[in-house]
Records
---
Amino acid sequence: MILGCSFDAPEANKAFKDKFDFHFDLLTDADKAMSIAYGAATAESARPARISVLIGPDGKIVRRFDKVTPADHPDEVLGIL
Amino acid sequence: MADIGENAPSFSLANQDGAMVSLKDLAGKSVLIWWYPKADTPG
């Protein structure tokens, strides 16, 4: 299960998803609270950082990817799963 | 900041269709969350 997240409105995320035919949901973290809790943003952030977090079936954080290189990231994650 | 081995912070956020997605509903699955600065930017 994959989830994308940004501060963008659902309308912008819908356009983004449709344009690239993403097969996963894009979430709107309008008050930034969730992104801050995961370390993807601070209260002062205009935009979240480009990071990823992998959560295990037990609800615990398995891995953090604090420097994501988009082209390499899918293989990196799949190598762990 | 949530670190490795800690419980993932709970959340309930609207998806692109306005439907709420909650982490608690995804229990038992591996979940990868990726943040992006802004919709439809390179990378």
---
Amino acid sequence: MRDTSAWSVATLALVLILSIPYIAFASGLMAGTGHKWGHLTTYFLNKFFINSVILIIGVGFISCLLGISTAWVISRYEIPGRKVWGILLYLPLAIPTYIMAYIYVGLVGYGGTFVKLGQLVGTNASGINIMNIYGLIWVLSLSLFPYVYAAARASFSKRPAALRETATLLGASESKYFFSIALPMARPAVIGGLLLVCMEVLNDYGAAKYFGINTFTTGIFRSWTALRDLQSAVYLAGLLIAFAIVVTVLIRLSRGRKSFATASASGKPAKRIKLSGRKRLLALLVVALPIFFGLILPVIQLFSWVIPAFDGPSFVKNLWIAIQSLSVAALAAFLTVITAIVLLYFSKWNDLALIKRLPNLSTVGYAIPGAMIGIALFSGGRYFVDFAADTFGWRIGYLVYGGLPILIYAYIFRFLAVAYYPLEATSLRLGNQLAEASYTLGKSKLDTLWQIQIPVLKPAIWAAVVLVFIDTLKELPLTLILKPYDIDTLALVAYNYAEEEQMTKAALPALMLVSVVGLLSFLIEWSKNSTSKNKR
Amino acid sequence: MGIQDHKKGALVRIQDISKTYQGRYLALKTCSLQIEAGKLCAVVGHSGSGKTTLLRLIAGLERPDSGTISIGHEEMNSETTFVDPARRGVGMVFQNYALFPHLTVAKNVAYGLKRSAASKIDELLELVGLSGYQKKYPHELSGGEQQRVALARTLAPSPRLLLLDEPFSNLDADLKSGIRKEVRRIIKETKLTAMFITHDLVDALDIADEIILLDQGSLEVHCQIKELADLEGHQPKLQASLDRLCDRSRKILEVVGSNPKKTQ
């Protein structure tokens, strides 16, 4: 019994520590609206709302179109280079939305690469103004569609051959099978991917700011920095989270009450159909175009900026920033994964049903936009700082304002779900027997965790470290608010230069960021491919 | 019901134990039994009859809703006490063997030992007929070999009681008979008390000293194998199906009910 209460108390304590942003945010809300709140509600609030709705609908639609069509081709048809296409389709995610935005302006904007190329062949096109909401929908979709692709591909690939064979025997054509069987069955997975897309759209700051589109997130920054009204920023963050909750509920409701579990993943997977002639060309175009626009073209543009302006000192300077950026991301990734493991097992070891559910509360950080977390910690932090100074005489301001610990804490809060859920899934798949065997052999829970569970979970742990590492490297709004004074990240430097229209200077850190993230994403997908191949 | 009298040499004493899952699914209801030291006891019953729950409660992997379990002279759990599985002195061989995949055979066997002694590991591997397998990994072994490693690993910390959850269910029919006898030889050689779950009545009749039949969470029969045969006139071997055993057991109960002395 002693054990149970110890684990319950430990879990509760950890969850409380991870709830500080909520507490800080609530205390910020209680302090009332700021002096510019009236101005914001009169002139901006409806724009924030309408733009966010348009962005979610537009990006959601294009992401589904690109994600589902590419996933269908990769999982259903045998086309030349299918495995490589399959992996490359994940990689546009490696290009952060704000970098994609700068690139596209540099490509098609006035005086951009396409205009220069056109002049070389004698045309006098002046470029396209994409710095509007439609342009933003385009660049966000190109960066984010892999979320839908990944979810849809997993669902399409799992369907057993018997399902397709039954449909064929019943006379269903390929298109009928897709629309009446495969797509409805993939709906829960697609909705999961779509939710991630929506959260990223709401979380986006850099791209929307660069394109001059007013969204909740840009409003939070505007209120805080330009209007110098932190309280109104807190209230906007409150509205943003309410909006995020409404979007989540609406999307989940669209899933309906149908059961999608009847045809399980068991059974031999369906054989892929070999295509030839025009059909093969069409299938190749479906997968190649999103890769061309979402990966190849942006990378070529980055190189075209980097190569002419390349010089030794700026490379060394950016290398130093890269080292700082990678170190911060590595530290955050390790601590997030350790927190996830502790939370997973402490809650499992306790016997109180309520406490077993607490990790769910701690992992919703991923759905909360970074700007809100940053504002909550920054504004709520004031109360902690004042309280510590007044009550104990401690000066802890440096921890909250511009300190590394608060930034790392914020990353853990934001990305805990990224580490927690894959680890939980692997742990559930492995079952309890190894641990139980260890207990009956005289080992304590902590000994078992250290000697058995962690070694067995090692591949999943490394995958979680890499995933959090990637997300941390790309993160912008949270880093922008909480960044220590003396530390820079590649994302921040790229953003700062791009905001000053110094694209050639922004390109090198952006390219470094895209290369590291791209390489790691490629390795993850490659290893997944070889693992599933070995299992077969 | 069957053998329920107090046994002087009982190692395991279970009194009125009940267990429900999620407050709804009744797995065991007020079950009482005693297992004599040195006996090999088979636990049989349909799926969902409470066999695995019984073993897990004895091992301390589940907590009962009510009742007491004692091993030796020590109370393992009651309303006020609960002894951790690590301190019960009970070894368990799991249905899928639960060998640690990242450890070699030798390290698996040494896992439960306070101090890892190569001679003890060699001795145990020799006992289960796997000398020379020290450096192999579990995935390099056949099902039968994995089962022997699991047995050696469980025997290493010298448990007072050995529990085996369907130890023969994953084995081919050809292997099964040999391994069954091997398990009995090892258990008897090490003078252990053991309980094993089986779906196959032949397993029970072939190697067990006693048989426990559970049905829908209730203890229906607990008697010695030879008594079961006596009662039925040596017929059970011809009727080695669990369904038929259940019907037969009810008949036995009627006999036991009318003449309790016959099973003592």
